[in-house]
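Q: My labmate handed me this sequence with no annotations at all. I'd like to see what the chain might look like in three dimensions before we decide whether it's worth expressing. Could you predict it?
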Amino acid sequence: MSESKGTAGIKEIARALNVSIGTVDRALHGRTGVSEKTKTRVLQMAERMGYTPNLAAQALKLNRKLSIAAILPKHISHFFDPVRAGIRAAAAATVGVQVSLEFHEYPRLGVGDVEAFERALKRHYDGIIFLPGDTRKFDSLIRTLSRNGTAMMCVGSDAPNTDRMGSVAAHAYVSGSIAAELLAMKLPQRSNVAVFSGDLYTMDHAEKLRGFAATLAVQAPHLMLLPALESHEQPRQAYQQALTLMRSKDHPQGIYLSTANSMPVLKALDELKLLGKVQIVTTDLFQELIPLIEFGKVMATLYQRPYTQGKVAFEALLRYLRGDDKSHPYVRLAPHVIFRSNLPLFSSHIVDTDEEIESELP
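A: Here is what I predict for the chain of 362 residues:
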């Protein structure tokens, strides 16, 4: 073992201690993932071997400019606008590296998303933050971009078994489970319940439905789950589905709106004078929903923390691109349950948007 002063590097320290290069790197730079005992051993060996950091390499790393894009839908803006705000905040707080951040929008999930990604292929970004809709369509796109050197970070949902480098989202299965438990507490007698979803090819929506159904089966077998209704995030379709369902003989006494595209359904129930009579759990929080919660027409909403999702996704992607963390982060945030009692605590989370839902309805 050579311990000559001034010649040792990270590789030599790792070899001397019989540990990985990554362990030595984390210990020398004070990052997590190393025990205090190992850190002490590494620092002592570095001093004995005369370790000198490669300042030129560090300067090159710090001066590198990274290009990152966020490719997200315009609709539903009260979810995606806070996601974008979280990404912007994380980018503004970045130190030690220059970041070029660009936002790309397409109309809605399933409409214009493939074209947006094809345009991104020509720009050669270092990293892309995106919400995967229909994972069948995104598999080849993610693979192509990843093999071209672009790190793909999912936000709001996930695309497992693809080449994406990580994902950040609210815990969808738990969200569905909470919604089922809330409805079970309000509906002690045998009743029908229904789920209004987006596209069930989107993992987030599929997992919410799975959590909802599983919890009903265990905790509330007296509640009968009707076939899920997919609106594909189209307001007109959701509105018509709600009218048809609530006019049927077997209409539900409880509804879980697992997508933030909830206003068209609530509008239909309002026209049928059923708000306040049907138990409703919604998703996320926006201005139009506040009075419905305040006056007991919506029991509760499950806040997916979109701002935090965007912020954490950007931070994880940046760590990956800088080489600080080459793991593949899988982050699932706990949803916040908002009732009338704690609604004032979340008022600051509401983002005003100019999205017009009413214009898309009859």
